[in-house]
Amino acid sequence: MMTENGRGAAAILSYQEYQRMYNPDVEAFQKLCDEIGAEAEANGLTEEKLAEILAEEDG
After folding, report:
1. What pLDDT score was predicted for residue 20?
2. What is the tally of helices (H) and strands (E) in the chain?
3. What is the pLDDT of residue 38?
4. pLDDT confidence bin for 1, thresholds 50/70/90
5. Is 4 helix (H, G, I), strand (E, B) or coil?
6. Residue 45: how many other CB atoms lie within 10 Å
7. Regarding beta strands 7-10 and 2-4, do their DSSP bridges make them parallel or antiparallel, or are they unpaired?
8. Is 28 helix (H, G, I), strand (E, B) or coil?
9. b/e map of 18-43 (b: 16 or more CB within 10 Å)?
10. Rounded distance, CA 49 to CA 41, Å?
């Protein structure tokens, strides 16, 4: 890490690490969203119930 005035200013990292940090894994994120949605549905959450919950939080 390079510093400027005692604070972190720059870092050197491999291209692979840069890619991992700045190119989101869209497929993995979609899979996670699908899994969370399936679990919520299995626990009885519907779009209507979610809308009610969100409306309660706004009001």
Report:
1. 84
2. 3, 2
3. 96
4. confident
5. strand
6. 13
7. antiparallel
8. helix
9. eeeeeeeeeeeeeeeeeeeeeeeeee
10. 11
Residue 48 scores a pLDDT above 90: yes
Residue 20: what are its φ and ψ, rounded to 5°? -60, -35
- Asked whether the beta carbons of 9 and 3 are under 8 A apart, the reply is yes
Residue for token digits 């190119």? 23
3-state SS assignment for residue 23: coil
- DSSP structure class, residue 10: E
| Rounded Cα gap, residues 35 and 47, in angstroms | 16
> Could you give the CA distance from residue 56 to residue 59 in angstroms, rounded to a whole number?
5
Instruction: Tokens 């409306």: give the residue.
Output: 55
